[in-house]
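Aim 2 progress update. The chain analyzed this quarter is reproduced below.
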Amino acid sequence: MAGYDWARLHAALNDLPAALLLAAVLFDLLGAINKRDSLKAAGFWCLFLGVLGTGAAIISGRATEGGIDHTDAAHAVMETHETLAYITLAIFGLLFAWRVVRKGVWNAKEQPVALTAGVIGIGILIVTAKLGGNLVFEHGLGISTTRVEAIVGERGGHAHDEGMVDSAAVAPDTAMAGSDTAKAGQTHTHADGKKHTH
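Predicted C-alpha cells:
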C-alpha cells in the first residue's frame, strides 16, 4: 500500500475526525453566536468530511486489529477504543443526516440540541483518541515484538532521559525481564554530548 501498512494508515487517518469534527462543532457554535450563515455552512462541510474521515479511520482500525502484535490487556483497550469510535460515528452521522433533512440548517429549537450533541460527541472523540494513544505508548501497538527488542538493543539495553522509556514502558506485555543491563551509578554520554547516569 505505497509503503504504508494498515497501522500506519490508521494513524494517519485518525487526524481526520479529530480535526474535522472539532472544526464542525466550533464553526456551528460560532455561527449560532454570530448568526452567520457562512460559519454554519463551513460547519456543515466539516461535519460531512469528518463523518467520512471517521468512517475511514474505523475501517483502517478494523483492518489493523488482526495484523499487529498485541496482548489480552491491549485487546481490552482496543475494544473500548473501537466501541467509542463507533459511538462517535453514530452521533455525528445522525447529526449530519438530520442536517441534510433540514437542508443544512437547524431551526431555533433544534440548534441547541444539535450543538449539545456535538459537544458530547467531541468529548467521546477525545476519550477515543486518548485510548488510541495509550495503545501505542503504553502497549507498543504498531511496533512488532522483534522491532521492540531491536530498539532496546540499539539503546544499549536501557532508556535515556530525553523522553524515551525502557522496554517495559514501550511494550510492557512483551518486554523480557532483565533486559535493562545498565548498572546503578553507571554514566554514559549521548551523541549530542549530554551525560546520563543510572
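Strands lie at 187-189, 195-197. Residues 6-137 form a domain with the Four Helix Bundle (Hemerythrin (Met), subunit A) fold (CATH 1.20.120). These observations will guide the mutagenesis experiments scheduled for the next reporting period.
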